[in-house]
Amino acid sequence: MRALAALLCGSIFGVGLAVARMTVPTVVLGFLDVFGHFDPTLIFVLCGAVVTTTLVFPLVLRRQRPLLAGAFELPTSRLIDAPLLLGAAIFGVGWGLAGYCPGPALVALAAGVPTAFVFVPAMLAGMLIQRCTRRA
């Protein structure tokens, strides 16, 4: 049941990313280029996500536990440290250079978008390097 729910949720998420055109790097880069050829269309995606999260997240957390898990897995640390800032900076630079972040890149890969075939292996290599070099 959990695997089926994960597949369903992942599929809905992927379709949403594709419909929102988050899988098109030029659209994302246009949104990030606020001083150039700015494309404001993704502001609706951002606003929709913020509104949905603001309204639904508190309702979900009122439950004793998730439907298909024993407990909620929420972050316990509120520490803003160097690894967090460095990771956020690397993520932002990568997103700004390539126009992809992990979710849309995987959807683009599944759709056969050629640039995703370059980005996803590079992303996986970065994840492997991080895992091998992080301190325990």
Based on helices, strands and strand pairing, what is the structural class? Answer: mainly alpha
Quantity of strands, as a count: 0
From the spread of the alpha carbons, the general shape counts as: globular
The helix content, as a percent range, equals: 55-70%
- The sequence of SSEs as H and E is HHHHHH
Q: What amount of the residues lies in strands?
A: under 5%
Low-confidence stretches: none
Count of folded domains: 1
Gyration radius from CA atoms, angstroms: 17 Å
The rounded distance between the terminal residues' Cα atoms is: 34 Å
What is the count of DSSP helices, taking H or I runs of 4+ residues? 6
Largest beta sheet, briefly?
A: none
What is the arithmetic mean of pLDDT?
Answer: 91
Report what the structure shows.
The protein is an all-alpha fold. The protein has one domain (2-133). The chain has helices at 2-19, 25-32, 43-61, 82-98, 102-110, 116-133. The chain is globular and about 45 Å long.
